[in-house]
Automatic annotation (TrEMBL):
<dbReference type="InterPro" id="IPR029044">
    <property type="entry name" value="Nucleotide-diphossugar_trans"/>
</dbReference>
<feature type="domain" description="Glycosyltransferase 2-like">
    <location>
        <begin position="8"/>
        <end position="157"/>
    </location>
</feature>
<keyword id="KW-0808">Transferase</keyword>
<dbReference type="Pfam" id="PF00535">
    <property type="entry name" value="Glycos_transf_2"/>
</dbReference>
<dbReference type="InterPro" id="IPR001173">
    <property type="entry name" value="Glyco_trans_2-like"/>
</dbReference>
<dbReference type="GO" id="GO:0016758">
    <property type="term" value="F:hexosyltransferase activity"/>
</dbReference>
<protein>
    <submittedName>
        <fullName>Glycosyl transferase</fullName>
    </submittedName>
</protein>
Length: 170
C-alpha cells in the first residue's frame, strides 16, 4: 500500500493509563498500515504520558501532545487540537478505551475508495471489562438514505469510533 491515503486517528485522553495501552495495541495490529495516531492529553497525572511516549518511541506513527491552553479543556478541545495538527486525508475519532478490530481501517478505506461517499460507518461491539464480555452489537445494519442527517436529528446513533471521514468533509 505505498500510495494508500493517510488516516489520522485522533484520541483525546485523561488519566487512562490502565486502558490506553490496549487501545494503542489494537491500532498497531491494523492490516491497513498508513496511519498516524495523535494522542492529545488533557492533563493526565496517572502516568498516561509515559505510557503513550513509550509507544511513540517504538513506532513513529504515534504522537503524544498536551492539549494547549488555547483550546478548551475536555475531550472536544483535545479532539479539535488533534484535528488541527493532523496530516491525514481521512479522520477517525477514537477514544482511549476503544479497541479496533484488525481489519477496521482496511474495510472502511476499501468502502470509501470505491465509492463517492465522504464517510463510512462500521458496526460497533459493546463490551464490559474485556472483549470476551460482549454486551451487544450496535447498529447491525444502517438502512437510512441520509444517515448523517438522521444522526444530527437524533433519529439514529453510532459510537465515536465508528465513522471514518474524509478530512475535507469534517
Amino acid at each position: 500500500m505505498p500510495n494508500s491515503p493517510l488516516i489520522s486517528i485522533i484520541i483525546p485522553t485523561y488519566n487512562r493509563r490502565s486502558l490506553i495501552g490496549e487501545t494503542l495495541d489494537s491500532i498497531l495490529a491494523q492490516i491497513y498500515q498508513n496511519w498516524e495516531c495523535i494522542v492529545v492529553d488533557d492533563g493526565s497525572t496517572d502516568g498516561t504520558e509515559e505510557l503513550v511516549k513509550a509507544y511513540c518511541d517504538k513506532d513513529h506513527r504515534f504522537q503524544y501532545h498536551q492539549r494547549p491552553s488555547t483550546h478548551l479543556p475536555g475531550g472536544n478541545g483535545s479532539r479539535n487540537y488533534g484535528f488541527e495538527i493532523s496530516n491525514g486525508e481521512y479522520i477517525n475519532w477514537f477514544d482511549s478505551d476503544d479497541i479496533m478490530c484488525d481489519d477496521k481501517l482496511q474495510l472502511q478505506m476499501t468502502s470509501l475508495e470505491t465509492t463517492n461517499y465522504n464517510y463510512s460507518v462500521c458496526q460497533t461491539l459493546v463490551f464490559e471489562g474485556n472483549v470476551d464480555n460482549i454486551l451487544g452489537l450496535r447498529h447491525e445494519h444502517i438502512t437510512s438514505e441520509k444517515p448523517l442527517l438522521d444522526f444530527i436529528k437524533g433519529d439514529m446513533s453510532f459510537f465515536t469510533p465508528s465513522p471514518l471521514f474524509k478530512k475535507r468533509f469534517c
